[in-house]
Amino acid sequence: MVGVGIGIYGERPVLREVYIKNTAGHGLLTDGPSSGAPAGDYFSMEGHFERIFIDTVQKHGWYFNGPHDSTILHCVAVDAGQATTNTWDALYANSPARWFSFHGWTRSLGKRHRYAANIQSGAAGSQFIGGQFEGSESANVNLLANNC
Does 40 map to a domain? Predict the structure, then answer.
């Protein structure tokens, strides 16, 4: 995780009002238990992320690989993918979550992120409510997941 602004692996993380700027890697990398958690451990997956602002990072703004069924509120990733144009994303999601008001965009006239939201098959069943995705090199949204 060299160069990652913040890296989290765990159950029920809570991250609020955080500003991440100028990282050599991903701005925020999160991972955690999937729906395959042990029986009886029903609430071990869900994280809560609120008012996260990611600004000018070299790779993905937010590499979201869990925890499964997290809730994300009012988060922004601006100028992700500054290492190389059309390679990294403002949001790379590979786990289901509920996204309320995520804004991926670029202000840069130089290097641009590939997608403002790159939703992989592992994020099947995710919900996106009130988001805005813009300023991408390839397309604003790449949706590979079912039931979103």
Answer: no
Q: What single-letter amino acid sits at 82?
A: Q
- Per-residue pLDDT tens over the stretch 28-68: 999 987 655 555 555 567 899 999 999 999 999 999 999 98
Cβ within 8 Å of residue 148, ≥6 positions away? 119, 123, 124, 125, 126, 127, 128
In a domain, 98, yes or no: yes
pTM over 0.90: yes
Mode of pairing for the β-strands spanning 141-143 and 117-119: parallel
Structural domain total, the chain: 1
Rounded Cα distance between 120 and 145, Å, is 5
Q: Flag whether 53 is in a domain.
A: yes
- Containing structural domain, residue 21: 6-33+47-143
